[in-house]
Amino acid sequence: MDDVCFVVFSTSLLFLLITVSFAVDSISHSQSIRDNGSTLVSSDGSFELGFFSPGYLVLLGQNKSVVWWTSLSKYAQSTMIQLLDSGNFVVRDVTDGKSLWQSFDYPSHTLLPEMKMGWDFRTGLKRGLSAWKNSEDPCPGEFTCGIEMETHAYPEVYFRKGGLKHYRSGPWNGQEFSGASALRPNPIYSFDFVYNDNEVYYMYKLRSKSVISIMVLNGTTSTRDRLTWIEAEQTWRVYASVPRDLCDRYNLCGANANCIISDSPVCRCLQGFMPKSPEKWNSTDWSLGCMRKKPLSCQESDKDRFVKFTNLKLPDATHSWVDRSMNIKECRAKCLNNCSCMAYTSLDIRAGGSGCAILFGDLLDIRKLPDAGQDLYIRMSASEIDDDGKVKTGIIVAVVIGAVFSGMLLVGYYVYRSRTKLKETEKREENLKKKGVQKEDLELPIFNMSTIARATDNFSDDMKLGEGGFGPVYRGTLADGQEIAVKRLSSSSGQGFNEFMNEIKLIAKLQHRNLVKILGCCVQEEKMLMYEYMPNRSLDFFIFDQTREELLLDWPKRFHIICGIARGLLYLHQDSRLRIIHRDLKASNVLLDDEMNPKISDFGLARILTGGDQTGGNTKRVVGTYGYMAPEYAADGLFSVKSDVFSFGILVLEIISGRRNKGFYDPDNSHNLIGNAWRLWNEGRPLELIDSWLESSCNLSEVEVLRCIEVGLLCVQHHPEDRPSMASVVIMLGSDIALAQPKQPGFFMEKKHEASPDIGNE
Ligand SMILES: *[C@@H]1O[C@H](CO)[C@@H](O)[C@H](O)[C@H]1NC(C)=O
Ligand SMILES: *[C@@H]1O[C@H](CO)[C@@H](O)[C@H](O)[C@H]1NC(C)=O
Ligand SMILES: *[C@@H]1O[C@H](CO)[C@@H](O)[C@H](O)[C@H]1NC(C)=O
Ligand SMILES: *[C@@H]1O[C@H](CO)[C@@H](O)[C@H](O)[C@H]1NC(C)=O
Ligand SMILES: *[C@@H]1O[C@H](CO)[C@@H](O)[C@H](O)[C@H]1NC(C)=O
């Protein structure tokens, strides 16, 4: 055991050659100290080392047995041990004086000044604190404290209890730990955080020898206390202690929530998020945390934005990535390009900020620190944000304008981009009424009457595309060549000036590639709305008419259209806290652009429900289209996102079969689409539903078709609560996860005369 240095302690006697009886700071390898009160004292007298008897602890080794030893990496012929003025207890090689072992590498529950707490990447040594097992037993207990980080990530201090995270400091931001506001410049100690390629550590130094301060991990209170020595009372007093309060408790509020200690209750979902379980949340069980109100649209990265949150303790940085040279702009771009990136911030907040840190996954353990913390940019769906970069807080009210457009309904839907609270909106509306309309009040480009007249050949009959309930629709071409569709509100439409203004004021830029786009309006003597012109008309032209085979769409195009409609509808349903329910989804309301991308149109019957968690409404006036209406809507006027899902299901089955659903039916009637689909499904031959033309064409993926049939049947289930949400539908269409068995479709047992909607608008 030549390469092992034995440091042997005994509670009685060891091979003692020279007895230490006076104050020395070191002994050689042949010397020992015993627990009769003899000690080592560092040269300036700051530290003394010896044995003590904590409580009832018994240190075994009465008879010269080894009770503790450590191995060294280096062979040493002759060693000595020395107690330094720092309190570091070092084993040295006598010949070259080099340190072979030091107690500072193995802290127990105390961090002394100038002791590093951290991680040496070169040797792999981690220096962390462990509280005593209990007040009598100095063995490492379950309460620990140390710097943790994933490789190349963002280091921060964690306290753990029994392995579980108990408290974290928040990452170092160049100035302090983002969540440890107690760590401020002070007269007692200075502190430093070093993070480079070799090591990462935290260390503090006393400013003056006369004020003594140490840091102790206390297993009894589960706190890390900074103690200062009170000379007059000969005692340690707690100077600061973490965790400080409820909000310091690790992840108290769950994911994506903010802990605000001055609030009651303290937990709050971050703006743009809502409780995963409102019941539990209300009963102050916050553990499930919060989820996004609107999903991110990662693939279309331009649809995501970032909202700036200030004075935050940064979230748990376990899953993070950092770069020291990037600036905040590059950081934003980096985050935007990675779907798993949820937030970004500056690595160093000094001098206006530098470096980049991006965080992945749920944002855990955030708190608000009124005079500390830092800025964090959190990813949001663009539809959650207005142009000011603030999360929408107001309430959106719907506007619904419809017009018939070559036999189909073309629609404008205008939603007001709410800036603040509903009250302010109402005030603005009032002012607007008084003042008349100012351009800046509208969120939509305004066209001159003369411009539109020129574009439409002065509203010539040749340019007329159709006539709707509210007035005629014209085709037009703007001076720059853009083709438009113009809906002109006729004075006889029954829509008065106030109603029209109300509608216009509520316009917001709902924009989605699968919704028809509104280009502008005219609010002069005539009221008009402009839409993008869709050259390929509507879906019904391309799936139902077997006599025009050249027009029929092959399966990949149909599947593309099904997925596009699903995404458009998902956007409507989840665009805001208030859900937009289309209420009239059908083949003729799906317009196709020149690349055959589907665009949902006709919001003439759409409703935007106010009141965030409301999922449906009730109407005495049942409007919609025969064959697409959900049973609860047709019979009782109950509409919800799930009634749209029903219509979507019908549409899917129509797209697959090339046949129209005729509405109410009975199970024996195989001429009815939905009845036929259900029968074939139950008889195990669902593929017979496929359009015969489609079946004979190539490119047919039976797996995809089967999946779409099953999704269609799930969507048309009788009970709204059984139908999947559009979010689930989009997932089901895009993956190969196992699907539930569809239950009986709606209307299955109905007789034709039982429910009859009073108005169909077809
Ligand atoms: C401790 O014991 C040693 C030898 O047994 C003796 O020389 C020394 O004086 C004792 N020290 C004290 C403080 O009693
Ligand atoms: C030393 O004590 C241990 C128990 O502490 C015992 O097992 C061992 O036999 C003893 N050795 C001698 C040499 O007395
Ligand atoms: C831990 O805290 C308790 C209660 O304040 C105190 O009695 C005890 O001395 C502390 N222990 C340490 C190691 O500071
Ligand atoms: C939760 O509390 C809020 C506000 O008190 C209330 O509006 C909401 O209905 C409650 N939700 C549940 C599910 O209890
Ligand atoms: C996003 O970041 C994660 C974690 O660093 C990484 O594994 C993944 O490859 C990144 N994705 C892209 C698209 O860059």
From TrEMBL:
SUPFAM superfamilies: alpha-D-mannose-specific plant lectins, Protein kinase-like (PK-like)
Recorded family membership: Belongs to the protein kinase superfamily. Ser/Thr protein kinase family.
Family annotation (SMART domains): B_lectin (SM00108), PAN_AP (SM00473), S_TKc (SM00220)
The protein, known as: Receptor-like serine/threonine-protein kinase
Domain spans labelled Bulb-type lectin: 1-104
Domain of life: Eukaryota
One Gene Ontology molecular-function label: ATP binding
Location, primary (coarse class): membrane
Apple domain sequence ranges: 298-381
First-tier enzyme category under EC: transferase
E.C. designation(s): 2.7.11.1
UniProt catalytic activity: L-threonyl-[protein] + ATP = O-phospho-L-threonyl-[protein] + ADP + H(+); L-seryl-[protein] + ATP = O-phospho-L-seryl-[protein] + ADP + H(+)
InterPro entries reported for this sequence: Bulb-type_lectin_dom (IPR001480), Bulb-type_lectin_dom_sf (IPR036426), EGF (IPR000742), Kinase-like_dom_sf (IPR011009), Pan_app (IPR003609), Prot_kinase_dom (IPR000719), S_locus_glycoprot_dom (IPR000858), Ser-Thr/Tyr_kinase_cat_dom (IPR001245)
Gene Ontology CC terms: plasma membrane
Keyword tags: ATP-binding, Cell membrane, Disulfide bond, EGF-like domain, Glycoprotein, Kinase, Membrane, Nucleotide-binding, Serine/threonine-protein kinase, Signal, Transferase, Transmembrane, Transmembrane helix
GO BP term (any one): recognition of pollen
